[in-house]
Write a structure and sequence with these properties.
By secondary structure, this protein is α+β, with helices and mostly antiparallel strands. The chain has a domain of about 220 residues: Up-down Bundle (Alpha-lytic protease prodomain-like), CATH 1.20.1510.10. It contains 9 helices and 4 strands, in the order αααααβαααββαβ. The chain is elongated and about 85 Å long.
Amino acid sequence: MHSHSIEQWTHDHAFLGEKHDENERRTWLVVVLTLVMMVGEIVAGSLFGSMALLADGWHMGTHAAALGIAAFAYRFARRHLGNSHFTFGTGKFGDLAAFSSAIILGLIAVEIAYESVLRLFTPVPIVYGEAIAVAALGLCVNLASAWLLRDSHDHHHHGHDHGHGHAHDDHDDHDHDHNHHGHHHDNNLRAAYVHVMADAATSVLAIAALVVAMYSGWVWADPAVGLIGSAVIASWAFGLVKTSGAVLLDVRADEKLERTIRARMEVGEDRVTDLHLWQVGPGHCAVLVSLVSDKPKQPAVYKKRLAGLKGLSHVTVEVETCPH
């Protein structure tokens, strides 16, 4: 077979989300916005001697670092899209970044809880007007960032035809109507969104606590609300670790889709002996199916059975003849 004819059967492993480039631009915008806010607060805090501004400025720095991880993950995945060293492409790099961001978010929750406990036992004087103004400013920046990072689903698929001894196929999927779309989410974008929402929630709780403390004299209200906020952020971090970790560890992407694949493959004397379904990028799943049959068919037959299943971007079918 000539090399030019072989090329039409080869394919890439570009398993990025449909809105990868758009999400990257949005994330970089939020990084810049957060950095500008951080520098502004640190400079203002230094000039005017405001500890509240300084503290919030450095706190914004931790979020800028986490958001920077998300932005660089998008850039790395895009730049190394055609790198053959990555067996199934760079689509899961965003999940690795999301997992890292979740760990940072968990550490922030621990830090807030620690500071809140210290302040419960050793209250410090609070300049209420200044603190409320800083929290309100931070809230505005976080709401703007959340709007930029608002969630979207990725439904990008692309197709290739393969006629090897095993059946390798990528499908352009439009007809499958299963209801589980968890593997369509961009966990990297979700991680960035959770970071700004966690900061926004902290700002809202801080404003409420400061207002209560200012008018009632209950100085314990601020650290008490801090403990509540840390628990909320910790729960978000745990959820993010769970979803991104599942992708990194190749946990079954979609049980309903797996059952559909098994049902479509087991026709007549064909029986599935092994089936692996895992996510290789936002909106992209890979499946490996091993079949045994008294009368093995051509790869094109099995390819046709799986045609139209949404989310399948890389399919491998192995067929063995039943010895009995």
